[in-house]
Amino acid sequence: MKLITSLLLFLSLATTSLASKGSPQTAEDKIAILETVYSNLYNAMGMNEDRPVLRLDTRRSRSVAYLKKNKDGSKTIAVEEKAFDVCMSLGEDGRNALAFLMAHELGHFRYEHHWGGEFASSFAIADIQEEIAEASKKLGELKFYETQADQMGGIYCYLAGYNIAGIGQKLLPKMYEAYGLPAINKKYPSLDQRIEITQENDKNMQVLINVYEAGTYALLLGEYSEARRCLQHCLNKGFKSREVYNNIGVASFLEAAELIGKDEVIYAYPVELDVESRIQTDNKGFAINVEELLNEAAKKFEQAIRFDPEYATAYLNKACVFSLQKKYEDAEYYGKKALRIAKENNEQNTTGNALCILGITYHQMGEQADAEAKLKEGKNDFANYLCEVNMNVVKGKRLESIEWIKRPTEGLFEAAEQTEGSLDRPKRETLDGVVDFMEDLEGEELEEVIIYKGSCYYLYLESSKILNLTTVNDEELYFQVCNKGYIGETEKGITIGTETKKVLKRYGTPDIAIPTRSGMLYYYTNPKIVFFTSEGKVERWMVYRMY
User: What's the predicted TM-score (pTM) here?
Assistant: First the structure.
């Protein structure tokens, strides 16, 4: 088993819940909150369609929320002020409730569930036109539409960082009561049925999230085939997003690079992670397998671009594929696209990585001066360590001299040299008393999810979640992640909220350091622990084992 190394990965996992604290008083405050939630959701959708105009409806109070097609063909998504107030009455879950409400309407928008003047959303139950009701006589058909909207909306909420688990059960009774809606309506799902739909959706979404996270964690450990199996399962079940397509492409690219080997892959590629049996390297089928993997990677990156044409990460990763395929003009084109978009969106990490792939490409094209200029810019202006690594390569050093197999972290964490106490690392980090997964979980019933050629298992404990993958090579991968509200500490006294500088002082230089959208991921092999950080502080951590 090999770790993902010498290749920069950009982890894209859902962020912490964006729950609200306090209740806004003015219409301007309410609109600002709505705009923030709506923008987060729409960005998570990664859609190219015209974005519906958002409106806070302060005049009427009969439809809760609705999506309307205007005479000019444009669309409006509206949330009534009364509905907004009901959502915010949930306190810290206020913004989660708003996300639940709007994501549901965006789910109808995504699936084009519309008849007549308005979408047939059950949230607009008091204001649906007669012709819409006539077109939706079959309750089972409407339940299907509502389930589709909930499932797609749940995906958007997760990707945007909103925790909507259990929100439907809290929000719907309050909404029905506030609007004086009947609990039973012959034409539409009853309140109980509507809650049933949300509960079932919560369950299905949590299963998909567990498989998605297991696939992302497997990718970190270099188990590329397992990562692809998990992520492809998510796609097959409707969890379609730019992140999933991108990460499958990353897995294919990394496996191809590993098969080609360090003699051919002389650069450290800045491919970004937004987070079948292993192919055998026999000479007979080698070239075909590698080419298939690279073509699959390019295809997935293109699908991610279709989801979001402003997704700089996918352009960057596609440039890496073309570079490895020696299609230098295509690599330059996509590298420049990534650089432009990243700069426009102030994405510092991706900007540095785009400069890196352009530097690599220019070196491949024999343009030494341009190569060094791009790599120097990435190193000096964006502190991009891969630009520094590749600068050595273009100046004549082979990548093996800076550890092709091990991620080069020397010199990046100077604070780690100033230790607080001993750097003797503990043999085991534990959560919820689990030391040996094989022994300590004996007798526990883990929930099973059947995926292609295998299974993914999960178990919820008091303060953590355990994910387990059985690989096609009969290896057991275990990941245990602490809850975000966990109040315990690691063996060296690290807690949620600890500054990352203290992690480096107490645990030393990490074996792998991965930039994420909001911070860094620090990966240690002894002890086997991964710290997820955001804004300079520990957000959560994960322990892992391989058997």
Answer: 0.74
